[in-house]
Write the structure tokens for this entry.
Amino acid sequence: MIDKQALNEYESRYRTTLINSLAGVKQAILIGTKSTDGYSNLAIFNSLIHIGANPPLWGLIFRPATVKRDTLNNILETQQYTINYVATRDYQKAHQTSAKYKKTISEFDVCGFTECYHPHFHAPFVAEAPVKIAMKMEQKIDISINGTILLIGSIQHIDMDETLISPDGFVALDKAQTLACAGLDAYYETYLMDRLVYAKPR
Amino acid sequence: MIDKQALNEYESRYRTTLINSLAGVKQAILIGTKSTDGYSNLAIFNSLIHIGANPPLWGLIFRPATVKRDTLNNILETQQYTINYVATRDYQKAHQTSAKYKKTISEFDVCGFTECYHPHFHAPFVAEAPVKIAMKMEQKIDISINGTILLIGSIQHIDMDETLISPDGFVALDKAQTLACAGLDAYYETYLMDRLVYAKPR
């Protein structure tokens, strides 16, 4: 049993790795943004949160003191960002976007992804991404307990192979071999075991 | 391309399935609670969010109008809950906890899980769970944009096979064959492809 005292006494990096990886697998996503003065940014995140479907709203968690600062600044400046799923074969390139590059350096260029654009949308997409989603910032919520930020955006459009969508709306992301991750450095493949029917008391 | 107008025009259940499943895989967890008048509750969730490691804080998203109402009420009453990971072989039992049972019926009993307790902790754990985590509620944040709730709790203790923890703190949840899920009904296995070193500009 790891009790509260043991958790408190762990060396800081050990505790971060433990608590972060223990939270389990999540979809790996690349967030594309562009500052008002024209610098593109691309950064890997794993904190995508489903907030609601009507309207379609998703959240992201930002820790203010981290490497991801350019992403947050660009979103606050432009209210726009893109969510790009990662093909499993691109996991090493995606991980490299977590390095601390200067604002004037585009992670698209140095990490080997291709910037592309949709009409009437300022933020850049990842051409290699099997799913590309345009997002508009809707609400920024400051989490007072530890200074993190929950940023909520609405889905503007979705660009994907629509044959991945089942007749009932289910998206078979595993068929597109999209990357999952845990913690800050562990990358996973996922396999669909089963879909079950709506559960009723029995 | 699925644009905003198409999203708006989808039938409500289709849109819910699409947006929910598109958000990708997440760890499947069973939340154990017990009301002050002694009724146990167990419910499957997939909205576990890493908020921070120091102190160790995790969040959950609640939609007030859903089946999970007993869970939220019990947490607000007692400030305690447990997070229990699910062995992949138990996915059907875990899914059954999403059925709308009356408050007086324990999902532990009807879905085939065994209730167990740790000293000095009111909320019930799942004996079958490969990872059992005791949580204390810390903060409730109302998300005004759609009426959902972000509930943040702190980790009180962790009960797991500690041989799953690497020397650097990484928890190999895949070795414990823990269940992942997407949307409301799709269950996944996960496989670790690789862990990478901390990325630096190159």
Observations:
- The CA atoms of residues 72 and 158 of chain B lie 22 Å apart.
